[in-house]
Amino acid sequence: MFCIDTFAAHCKTAMAAADDRQAAAAQLMAEAIAVHGPDAIIAALDAAVPPGASVGELIVHASPEMTLLYARIPAKFQSGIHNHTVFANIAQLQGEELNTTYAKDGDRLAVVEQQTATLGTVLTLPADVIHGIANPGNETAYALHLYGGDFGAIQDERSLWDEDSHEELGFSFPALVQQSVKAMAKADNEVGLDALVAAIPAAKPAVDAAKARA
Ligand SMILES: [Fe+2]
């Protein structure tokens, strides 16, 4: 059986002993998928979060060393552009996650590359990454995200970028949802907007407002 607390403890021990904390955590994530299988990990994560949890409530472990986030990505979801300020490892448990990374280009952001996290793999992103994620599939995608610091402690250091102007904004989970809604509305992604509301009922007012503007 996969146990989140045991896994977190193993990660912290391995990271403390490693020269490369990110690589040590990525190795343990890959091993967890190989040993337990993705479905058992999803079951443990589902049991750890409340029904209808908003994105900020999908944090299943937080400590000074690391945050574990249960990424339950609705069908066709597109996220706002954001950073983390700490490294991120994405262990894909079901479906796929498309990662688009950006670099500052004058007053704008320019796409650097796109990478897809596929089932059973662990995608590693550096601490200075600026990115957005998307679920290209028609079903919810599931992943375990491990970040190399405490999201609660670093929230004020993080940024979000406006979808239209690329203005740098302060990060919060509700603001991330707002920008995600904006990204999907801009792409006429009605499937993604509806799937977001089904997954996170708290997103409904923002989605209704975006639809009313369309
Ligand atoms: Fe991210």
CATH topology: Jelly Rolls
Give the total of beta strands: 11
Largest sheet: 6 strands, antiparallel
Name the strands of the widest sheet in spatial order. 6-5-8-3-10-11
Overall residue-averaged pLDDT value: 95
Structural class category: alpha+beta
Distance from first to last alpha carbon: 47 Å
The CATH class: Mainly Beta
Helix count?
7
| Stretches with pLDDT under 50, minimum 5 residues | none
Number of domains in the coordinates? 1
CATH superfamily: Jelly Rolls
The coarse silhouette is globular
| Small molecules (ligands, ions, cofactors) in the structure | fe (ii) ion
Helix content: 25-40%
Order of secondary-structure elements:
HHHEEEEEEEEEHEEHHH
What amount of the residues lies in strands?
25-35%
What Rg do the Cα atoms give?
17 Å
Question: What is the name of the CATH architecture?
Answer: Sandwich
Tell me what the structure shows.
This protein has a single domain, classed as Jelly Rolls (Sandwich). The protein contains 7 helices and 11 strands. It has helices at 4-17, 21-36, 38-48, 151-154, 173-186, 190-199, 204-213; strands spanning 59-62, 67-73, 81-83, 88-94, 97-105, 108-117, 122-125, 130-134, 141-147, 159-161, 168-170. Strands 6-5-8-3-10-11 form a 6-stranded antiparallel β-sheet, with helices on one face. Strands 1-2-9-4-7 form a 5-stranded antiparallel β-sheet, covered by helices on one side. Strand 10 (159-161) and strand 11 form a beta hairpin. The protein binds fe (ii) ion.
